Amino acid sequence: MIDIYISTANDSIFKLTNFLFSEECDFEFFIIHQIFPQQNIEQYEKIYAFLNKLGVEVITSYSKGLSKSRNLAIDIATADFIYLTDDDIEINYVNLKLATQKLVDNKLDFLTCEVITDHGQKFKSYGKRKKIEFYNLVNSASISSVELVFDRKKLQKFDVSYDEDFGLGARYPSCEEYIFITDCIKAGAKGNHLELDLCMHPACSSGQNFSTGLSIETRGAMVRRIFGWFSFPLALVLLLKINMKVQMNLKSRIQLKSIYKGFYK
Fold first, then answer.
1. What is the dihedral of CA 82, 16, 36, 45, to 10 degrees?
2. In this structure, are 186 and 70 located in the same domain?
3. Residue 205 has pLDDT above 70, yes or no
4. Alpha-carbon distances, residue 45 vs 48, 56, 70 (angstroms)
5. Which pLDDT value is given to residue 242?
6. Element counts in the chain: helices (H) and strands (E)
7. Same domain for 148 and 107
8. Do residues 202 and 214 share a domain?
9. Longest alpha-carbon distance in the chain
């Protein structure tokens, strides 16, 4: 059995009227619906009823932040495998089942697969992952949550959760996936990559935005969180790599100030 948890917030839940839910008995669907600021849920009763008729359980939460939604899903999941996804995703259910079988066959704790965009292209470059035997603190940097499939019992054994200071709706609006997966690796989890299209996702991503001081500050905080207080040189290397990959609108002085602030704040 595979538990699929879909994170959504406020009126975004109405997008799920178009979500493609599988009718196969191998899948159980849950929606974590975050409502903030706290308000009357009567406006959502019709969509709740519609989803319930499809066999989907809706869990209402008055928390804010994607990482809090992910953690709630991990806490309440009961199936053998868990897949955490979003309200703008189209899942390939055949490949999701194949991924869980690979977890069992290869005795892995987690597995990453690939994502295509709504234009039929790869969501990102996956070439380097083909050479990975097992993920480590460095080669896991580009993992997204919707690429991940977990063995639930092993995940709960490692007692790892998403850092709620990171992710959409939190103090730092991204990088929660990298922190989460490196926490898993530090706890002893083993995982590798499978060349399999797991889902379709819109072409843009919040994790790829480097246009503000906060986005750079978030990277500084992320480096400290993963590698510790003596890793500031790594933060500077990361900043250099970002500048080599994308055209930055921020002046160098602001970039340095932002990454320093994120690291030491």
1. -110
2. yes
3. no
4. 5, 14, 23
5. 81
6. 8, 8
7. yes
8. no
9. 56
